[in-house]
Amino acid sequence: MKRATLLVALGVAVLALVVGAALATQPSGDTATPVTATPLTRATLGEFKAKNDGIKVKSLQQSADVALVKVTIEPGGSTGWHHHPGVALVSVGSGTVTQYDPQCHKTVIQAGKGFVESNGEVHLVHNESNVDAVLYVAFLVPTKTPPDGLTIADPKPKGCNVK
């Protein structure tokens, strides 16, 4: 069966989150629960194609779901290295986070801004501030994706010591 491909051309932004597998990096921080992901809702969209005001979104040959998740990252907390199936649109609701790519390049994202994660891009999101960072993530994923499959843990990239 073909793997679903979701195309998103957005002038908007969004994010990422939680843990996983054995050889992967785990969320870290100064407390026992540095990252908390709270599912808000999930719905099946089926196959769809939509466009308006220069924004296009469509699923190809497969049903897609939208899942909304609130992610809180405590000061010093990190999501661990991971990627997502489909597309994740991340909005920073409060606080500031730093996103790292596999080459250790960092991007600082403040409240009111966001980012898009797609193409299976490996990344890590870290709260380097002294207040909680709250993110709201809209995942567009193949319908068959299980609830615990929205985030897929990855090993730490060689040469990048960010945890």
Keywords:
163 residues; disordered N terminus; five-stranded antiparallel sheet; globular; three-stranded antiparallel sheet; mainly beta; Jelly Rolls; 47% strand
Q: Give the proportion of residues in helices.
A: under 10%
Across the major sheet, the strand order is 2-5-12-7-10
Q: Summarize the main sheet.
A: 5 strands, antiparallel
Element string (H = helix, E = strand): EEEEEEEEEEEEE
Given as residue ranges, the uncertain stretches (5+ residues, pLDDT < 50) are 1-25
Distance between the termini: 36 Å
User: What is the correct CATH architecture of the domain at 13-38 and 68-153?
Assistant: Sandwich
| CATH superfamily heading of the domain at 13-38 and 68-153 | Jelly Rolls
> What is the number of E strands?
13
Q: Rough shape? A: globular
Over all CA atoms, what is the radius of gyration?
15 Å
Q: The CATH topology of the domain at 13-38 and 68-153, please?
A: Jelly Rolls
Structural class: mainly beta
- Broad CATH class of the domain at 13-38 and 68-153: Mainly Beta
Instruction: Specify the number of helices.
Output: 0
Mean pLDDT rating:
83
Beta-strand proportion: over 45%
How would you describe this protein?
It is built from no helices and 13 strands. The protein is mainly beta and 163 residues long. The chain has a domain at 13-38 and 68-153: Jelly Rolls (Sandwich), CATH 2.60.120.10. The strands form 4 sheets. Strands 2-5-12-7-10 form a 5-stranded antiparallel beta sheet, with no helix packed on it. The protein has a 3-stranded antiparallel beta sheet with strand order 1-4-3, with no helix packed on it. β8 and β9 (106-110) form a beta hairpin. The protein is globular and about 40 Å long. The model is unreliable at 1-25 (pLDDT under 50).
